[in-house]
Predict the 3D structure of the following.
Amino acid sequence: MSSLQENTNNSFFKGSQEYKPKEDQEISVWVENEEDVPFWFSFFNGLIPNTRFNITAPSTGERGKQSLIKHFDSVGTDLVICLDSDYDYILQTEIGIQMQDSPYIFQTYVYAIENFRCIPRNLEKVVVQATLDSNPKCDFEQFLAKYSTIVYSLFLEFLENKESDMEKLSSIFNLIFKLENDYSITSNLEQIVEREFQNSLSQSFEEKIENLGCVPTECYLFLRGHDLERKIIEILRELCGRITGLKKREIGQASTNPTEDIVAYQNKLRAVEAVLLDTDVYILQKKSLFTGKALEFFEKIENDILVYKMELENN
């Protein structure tokens, strides 16, 4: 944190607003890093449009979640904190309970923002936008449900024995996805799970985790977000490469100026990583893409912010 952030709290920000005209007053929102700004801006600006929010990440020194946890006691109506849940929500850690109990600390509930980007219908939209072709070809819903179901027991074993079983989590991502000719996705996942799973999972722990929203078909929501997104991007690159290759051949066969038209098409394309990041900017507009547990957690974030909005209005 910068020296300014180290020495500020809600009282500081409340005092700084006192002599400002109402239209110039703003709420300070601290996030883990710059990449998180669009996601939280979309929620706050969309749900509380008549209030100005200054959303920033630590500018110097320590960054990330740990730097924000140190300031949990500083929050209030004029200073709020937003962060990824990681495993704190699903394991109901002390930090997780603090985040749930405070009306001024907002969390993702799923592991991280990246997990929201990877919901099936959003991935379909990403492929369409990245290729300018209306057929995404791949059934992401089927793929993610199958992937989640296969890793579920191994993942819960990792959660129950988190301190000693880090290698289990790594094994979930040390796999090879293959995009088949029919656009289905296969992997060596079954063999990895069969090798690593120890059948040591307690039923009471499984029930506790399911009650908190981690279910077999949507387990991907709680896998490490940056690792999940990295594997998904590998698939998207190959898939979009195939689709754009087919599209270029179609353009070449149909056009009287094939070279010029193919170049024009190529120039309109965007990298899948950039399109995927757009999810954060338009997250509220994309609510219709959310289903199942992903929708439930989306709505939990909405509800947390709307409760905060009511407090602001009554303040």
